[in-house]
Amino acid sequence: MKWSIQQLQSFKNDGVLLDESVDVSEVKQVDREIRDISTVKVKGSGSISRDLATFHLKIEGTMTLPCARTLNDVEFPFAIDAIEAFQLSEGATFDEEDEVHELTSNTVDLLPFVQERILLEKPFRVFSEKSEGPAPHSGNGWKMQAEDADADQKKQVDPRLAKLENLFKKDE
Q: Where are the residues of the annotated region Disordered (predicted)?
C-alpha cells in the first residue's frame, strides 16, 4: 500500500484496486487500551489524475479492548469507510474544505492513514457480558451496585432535605 508518484501516474487510466491484509499492530503502542488487534482487511479503489490520487477504502478488523466495568477482554469488530486524497503535484490548488494530504516525500503510503482511522474508530468504552472479572467490586467508601439498587435509593429522602419535600406539597 505504498507507491511512488511515478507508479501512481502509470495507473492513471486503469486506477488502483486494493484487496490486502495488513498488520497494524503498531496502534497498540499508540493507544495502550488496545490489547490486541487482528490483521486488518483493506479493500478499495483509487483513482489517479495529474494532481490528485483519491482512495476509497473499506477497513475491517477486530480489536480487543478492556471492559469498562470488569476489565475483561472484549472483542470489538469494526468496519470503516474512508476516503483519503493525496496531492501529487506541488502547483495544484484545492478548496480549503477538501481534505487533501500533502506529500512530504515522493511516495504515497496508506498504512499510517489506515492506522489513524482505526484509532479514531475506537470507542470510549465497551462492556463485557461477564459480570465477574479482574476489576474490584468494592473499595474504600464505594461498592458496585446493580441498577435496581439505585431505584431503592431514590425512594429514600435525605433527612436534610425532608422539609423541602413538604414545601412543594403546600403549593398544590
A: 129-172
